[in-house]
Amino acid sequence: MSMCREAGLNANLVLVDTRDEGDNKLVLPTIGFNHCIAQLNINGKMYLIELTDNHLPFGSMSNNIVNANGLYILKENESKSELVKLNTVNRTGNTIDRITTVQFKDGAAQIKRVFKIAGAESSYTRGNYSDMSKTDRDKQFTERLSNEFGKNVKLVELNITNLDNLKDTIEMSYQFSIEKLTSEVAGMQILKFPWVDAYSSAAVVAAEKRTFPLNLWSFSATPYDKEIITLTLPAGKKLMEIPKNLSYKCAAISYTLSFEVRGDKVIATREVKYLKEQVSVNEYAEFREVVNNMLEADKLQIAFK
Question: Which of 11, 99, 181, 238 is the most exposed place for a label (fewest CB within 10 A)?
Answer without folding.
Answer: 238
